[in-house]
Design goal:
six-stranded mixed sheet, 10 helices
């Protein structure tokens, strides 16, 4: 039979296989910002593993909007996709409908409140590491995070507080700011911080794009490091500064995608062990003076 199929250049009919198995060899990856290189790197990890296993990946950009996210989840059900990897748009994400179908879901980057598999970064530790390093040589260290209600942002801000506590310093709450996870968010808050009667002498950016925005403003004010110290949680996608000028807590985004895809494939194949969460370690690369 196999020899005959080879001689005839037989290609399996995916539509027929979907009908037989009640699911397609397709998985959905739903992320909040396709323009953020962090999520692009994660997507590459997912695609590498899925492709090797014979699955295709549909990339869905929710723009951190619940309505768009819900639409993509409905499409995943309607198209009989085998499973979903999801970076939730907010803490109000609803997975009730898709979980009722029995499809596996793996949460990435942030939790969902549901009893499902997940892969997250050590976010509190990342904020703590970045801030602790700044506090060794600076007195007033600010934190710029994304939306306060997003778990990753809140946890990294908590790390900022813990680093101050560890150093025996009262955390200056006037230097704790939240905005968007985008470049314009970093720019706006950095301008606000510089306008304070007593501005910070260092800043921790809660993600890569916030870091880019903050550095742009510091450059425009001729305050680039070491004049004002900068630490960034996540690899900087682009900057005119020397890489050695900025402290970076690197996040293994590609490894997160690889891990999530492997977990999802295990569920698709029938793994019934209790839900588990994998926490990935960070890597601090300190600026050199």
């Amino acid at each position: 039979m196999r020899n005959a199929a080879k001689q005839l250049n037989f290609t399996p009919n995916r539509a027929a296989r979907t009908l037989r198995r009640q699911s397609s060899e397709v998985i959905a990856l739903v992320i909040p910002d396709i323009e953020n290189p962090y999520f692009t790197e994660m997507a590459r990890g997912v695609e590498d593993v899925a492709s090797e296993a014979g699955y295709s990946v549909v990339l869905c950009n929710s723009d951190a909007q619940i309505d768009k996210e819900s639409t993509y989840l409905r499409i995943a059900m309607a198209e009989n996709m085998s499973g979903v990897i999801l970076a939730a748009a907010s803490d109000h994400t609803s997975l009730d409908a898709i979980l009722a179908t029995g499809r596996p879901i793996v949460a990435v980057d942030r939790s969902t409140g549901y009893d499902i598999d997940g892969v997250v970064m050590a976010n509190r530790d990342a904020g703590r590491q970045a801030t602790a390093h700044m506090l060794r040589t600076h007195r007033r260290v600010a934190y710029i995070g994304g939306p306060e209600h997003i778990e990753t942002s809140a946890d990294r801000a908590e790390g900022w507080r813990l680093a101050h506590r560890d150093a025996g310093i009262a955390a200056p709450e006037d230097l704790l700011r939240f905005s968007s996870f985008r470049v314009d968010g970093g720019r706006a808050v950095m301008e606000e911080l510089l306008a304070l009667p007593e501005p910070p002498d260092a800043v921790v950016a809660g993600n890569n794009l916030i870091g880019v925005g903050a550095i742009q403003v510091l450059t425009e004010h001729d305050l680039t490091p070491p004049r004002i110290g900068v630490a960034v949680v996540g690899s900087l996608p682009f900057t005119t500064l020397s890489p050695s000028a900025v402290t970076v807590v690197r996040l293994p985004a590609r490894h997160m995608g690889v891990t999530a895809a492997r977990m999802l494939l295990e569920r698709i194949r029938g793994d019934e062990q209790p839900a588990r969460t994998v926490v990935l370690r960070n890597d601090l690369q300190a600026a050199t003076r």
